[in-house]
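User: Can you predict the 3D structure of Polysaccharide biosynthesis protein? Sequence below.
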Amino acid sequence: MLRLGSSLQFISESIGKLRTSGFIRSFFSVGFSKVVASLLNFIFMVYSVRILSKNENGIFQYYSGFLPVLLAVAEFGLPTALVRFLSPMTEDKRKIGVLLASSLWVKWAALFLLVVVTGVAVYFLKENALAAFLLVFGSFVLSFNSYFESIFVSFGQYHALSIWYPLPNLIRILILYLADQFSEHALGHLDILGIFSVAPVFTIVLFFLLFPRGKLHWAGDKEEVRQQTRELISFNRYAFLASLFAIVSDRMELFFLNKYHSNEAVAAYGVALQPFSGFVILFSVLNSMIYPKLSRLTENKEFTSYLGKSILVAVVFALALGPWVFLGDWVFSALFSGKYPESVPVFQLLYPNYLFQLVFSPLGMALFALGQPRLLAILALVRLIFGLILDNLLIPEYGTMGAAGAFFLGQIPSWFLLSGYFLAYYKPSAKQS
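Assistant: Sure. Here are the predicted structure tokens for Polysaccharide biosynthesis protein:
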């Protein structure tokens, strides 16, 4: 009883400290802010789909599929690296200046790479030059969202972050609404792409209004900046490759549908993907819940137990979300005014894939916690290769359903390899016990 009383007192004191420190309020305010931002992004996409013709929407879905890929290049792993390096030095202006100056050099290098790669692609693939410019400009501007978010987090400016985070999507919706209401002609795919790409420019200015400017410094010794730049580029390189391979795998079906089928097929598949933006929120919440503790337990016997419990939580989430697949007809009819009935079976075929992604997500987080981003990059590459093969086998014959099937089947080998790694990883410890 004495031990129980001590434990309850410890828990009570810990909760009291968290409440007085403002941690709980900050956690929920930032979490709520991210949910609002995701919902605003979803509203923007639904609004865009409703006002575009199927042909125009297909072209928009095709080009917007490039944005996450180019964004990964524009970020070049900086968000993770900034939190890693900036958090311990928030009181040292000299080190802050060196780190931020070097991070800007990395961003300029990423922009140069984006321009060169996109320019070559436009020349050889004969793509629309204006669309390519908007994609490069948009991905570079969007990369500052995660860049500034990392600075907010490193300095513990959670209240300001919760205000700033939804602003890009809010500004997009306002501009889209005004353009739709007052434009003399019907909006096309380039109009929507332009709004999506350019609107976040305004939030770059707002960052400097919300963040305490006295805390930041943007210059440092040239030699120190050069050395820090090299360190930033080398840090997270495998995590960057894993992210790039995974994002290309996620968007690849849109490209092959555009190659083998009509713009309407691209539109139908792109619309089927829209409701899954809710899973992004869930993945983010799970990551916030699981990853920090996994990182602290890597040298502890509790790691296996906590990982098992995390997988169980993910399974419970997946089972709870499973029945929602049967609401596909109603959801698409309500959101898109019955405009895309052909997207419903595609959505239903994609749905189990996202549930399995949810179940296996703790294993991916565990690899990061164990310092194995290289293995994650290899798994993402395996997924990319199988996806390429299956896309070219199934999409020409079966169209959007073939794309959904290829997306699902292409991930199964990486899931088997990921599971096999952890079974082999824990087999020696099981034998010893």
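The chain has 20 helices and no strands. The chain has two domains: 20-235, 237-433.
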